[in-house]
């Protein structure tokens, strides 16, 4: 009798194991960390931290002259944000110029995405900025990294955000 049941029990055990393995959900692969993807090219993802009014990445590095692509995302913050990369040492002056736009002409400032358009401010911008993005939106900013090494600040120009939403792109040789 044992001989008759043994194969049946073994078959049942194997079938149960196979069913439990099939029922298990496949695990997604871990996302790759943003980094240099090819010689001369760097990809970075920067998001907005909801309810904190900060970027989720406060610093990143690129090599001088590299092609840089930044995916800027706003997954869950109800406020609008942008990302502007500036020349070293120009962030305070640029931010003040953005703030003055609002006082002078709030509707005009909003239409210009809170980007000052005077010659000095335009000269401060390293890369074209992103547009203002709301919840669930993203924007890709592509540019060539400056040839000069240094610390290039980035910030959000939406009124009042620049004090908390800031970071540094370090350019190395």
Structural description of this entry:
The chain has about 170 residues and is of the alpha+beta class. The chain has four helices and nine strands; from the N terminus they run H-E-E-E-E-E-E-H-H-H-E-E-E. The strands form two sheets. Strands 1, 2, 3, 5 and 7 form a five-stranded mixed β-sheet that branches. A four-stranded mixed β-sheet has the order 4-9-8-6, with no helix packed on it. It is globular and about 45 Å long. Mean pLDDT is about 80; it is low at about 1-35.
Helix content: 25-40%
Helix-strand string: HEEEEEEHHHEEE
Using the coordinates shown, work out and report the CATH topology: Immunoglobulin-like
Into which percentage range does the β-strand content fall? 25-35%
Count, helices: 4
Molecular shape: globular
Which runs of at least 5 residues are low in confidence (pLDDT < 50)? 1-36
Q: What would the average pLDDT be, to the nearest integer?
A: 82
Biggest β-sheet, characterized? 5 strands, mixed
* Top-tier CATH class: Mainly Beta
Distance N to C terminus:
80 Å
Radius of gyration: 25 Å
Secondary structure class reads alpha+beta
Number of domains: 1
Count every beta strand, where a strand is a DSSP E run of 2 or more residues. Answer: 9
Any guess at the CATH architecture? Sandwich
